[in-house]
Q: What sequence folds into this?
């Protein structure tokens, strides 16, 4: 049995599968609980169902890209570990880079199947896990007090017009502008005092075409009263942006 | 449900959310940390702890501060239930947060309200289940779908899922907050053009752009409040 076959053996699938099932169970529990709480608070059933439908359509494409992360890592770590890491706590951008750092720190030249040993594998698995759990640790210790502080702040404002909504919009705008700036910075960079065009334009193409498609979806949803498009507008826009990246990648 | 009953219900709901959230995180982390050791028993090769310590020192420097920043930013965005589940299921920035925000936009709930929290939790739970199903199906059907997913021609699509996601969200949010977009966008763009090495730290720098956007929004909010009073 070669190393990859050992790393994709049935016991490893079972270990990953049990943990993934536990987390899926928690998701179902929270889903049912919040749905019932919504009904108890008098929220419209149709709205609750729309939230679920839109989240399903929204999540399919990013999930496929996460699956690609599993496939990419499976070449060196087998399937069960990447499956586990990218299904629970993990993050697509994190796992590949940490796996590489972990491999180098234990003496491999990188994430390389020809150098992989069973001991290296379990050490990498532990490093990948322990490296990413700190958001969870913060939530366990400080989640309750932080949430209560935030709830206190928003209830203090409840007498007048709240800044909370504007703050959330602003925070998300801050997040998107940071990423937008990074896509422009990937294409245009200051090197030795002059601006250089790097040729890495596909991120901006995907971004721009997706935004354009979203504008079209919004037009139809708002002006033509096709509100049902809202559920699919993000997924449709993303597909458009991704298709544009493929087409530009083929032409240029 | 009258106001008093509603308050009582919410108080109980929030308390139970923290209880279940913490329990699920503690159990989830215990299982996750145990996994490499159980795999080690199965493979007869336990993790090398001195190599682990060396590697952890490198990883911790980068990822512990960024996890703290993420915690501080994401909890207000997701609410208590949403953040417990979000941190447990992962893939926050590239999926769960935009997904929850999109669901809240579609349903039309306001930040800081219980309804907002409920929609966030519903959305994150759903999103997490979709990912679980897609990845499980992908793993099961790996042999037939692998050539399609790994086709060279499709790589630009799959390499640019996150920019495509942010493009769609950008249109919605830049339109919603027209007045506050320009400043953080200009600052971040100039920063990344002038210091390209910072691109890999975009997760940290969103603190800066977020702070600029919030400060600007606050000034506008106060200005509007003043105008309404006079």
A:
């Amino acid at each position: 049995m070669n190393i990859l076959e050992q790393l994709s053996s049935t016991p490893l699938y079972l270990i990953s599968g049990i943990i993934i099932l536990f987390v899926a169970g928690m998701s179902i529990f929270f889903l049912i609980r919040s749905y019932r709480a919504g009904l108890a608070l008098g929220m419209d059933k149709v709205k609750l169902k729309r939230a679920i439908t839109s989240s399903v359509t929204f999540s399919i494409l990013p999930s496929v890209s996460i699956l690609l992360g599993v496939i990419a890592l499976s070449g060196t770590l087998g399937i069960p570990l990447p499956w586990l890491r990218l299904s629970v706590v993990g993050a697509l951008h994190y796992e590949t880079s940490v796996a590489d750092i972990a491999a180098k720190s234990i003496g491999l030249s990188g994430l390389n199947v020809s150098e992989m040993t069973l001991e290296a594998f379990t050490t990498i698995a532990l490093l990948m896990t322990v490296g990413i759990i700190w958001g969870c640790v913060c939530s366990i210790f400080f989640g309750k007090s932080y949430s209560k502080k935030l709830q206190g702040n928003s209830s203090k404002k409840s007498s007048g017009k709240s800044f909370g909504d504007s703050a959330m919009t602003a925070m998300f705008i801050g997040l998107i502008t940071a990423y937008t700036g990074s896509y422009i910075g990937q294409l245009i960079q200051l090197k030795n005092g002059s601006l250089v065009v790097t040729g890495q334009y596909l991120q901006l193409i995907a971004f721009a075409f997706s935004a354009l498609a979203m504008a079209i979806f919004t037009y139809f949803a708002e002006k033509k009263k096709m509100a049902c498009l809202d559920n699919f507008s993000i997924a449709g826009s993303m597909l458009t942006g991704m298709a544009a990246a493929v087409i530009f990648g083929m032409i240029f | 449900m009258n106001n008093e009953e509603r308050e009582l219900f919410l108080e109980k709901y929030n308390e139970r959310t923290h209880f279940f959230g913490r329990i699920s995180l503690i159990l989830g982390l215990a299982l996750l940390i145990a996994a490499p050791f159980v795999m080690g028993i199965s493979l007869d090769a336990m993790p090398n702890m001195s190599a682990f310590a060396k590697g952890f020192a490198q990883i911790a420097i980068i990822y512990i501060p960024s996890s703290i920043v993420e915690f501080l930013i994401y909890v207000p965005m997701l609410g208590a239930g949403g953040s417990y589940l979000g941190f447990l299921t992962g893939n926050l920035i590239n999926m769960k947060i935009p997904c929850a925000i999109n669901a809240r936009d579609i349903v039309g709930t306001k930040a800081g309200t219980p309804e907002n929290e409920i929609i966030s939790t519903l959305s994150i739970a759903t999103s997490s289940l979709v990912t679980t199903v897609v990845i499980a199906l992908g793993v099961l059907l790996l042999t037939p779908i692998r050539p399609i997913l790994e086709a060279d021609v499709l790589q630009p699509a799959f390499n640019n899922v996150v920019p495509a996601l942010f493009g769609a969200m950008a249109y919605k949010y830049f339109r919603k907050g027209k007045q506050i977009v320009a400043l953080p966008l200009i600052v971040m763009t100039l920063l990344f053009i002038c210091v390209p090495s910072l691109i890999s730290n975009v997760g940290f720098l969103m603190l800066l752009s977020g702070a600029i956007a919030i400060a600007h929004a606050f000034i506008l909010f106060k200005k509007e409040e003043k105008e309404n009073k006079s």
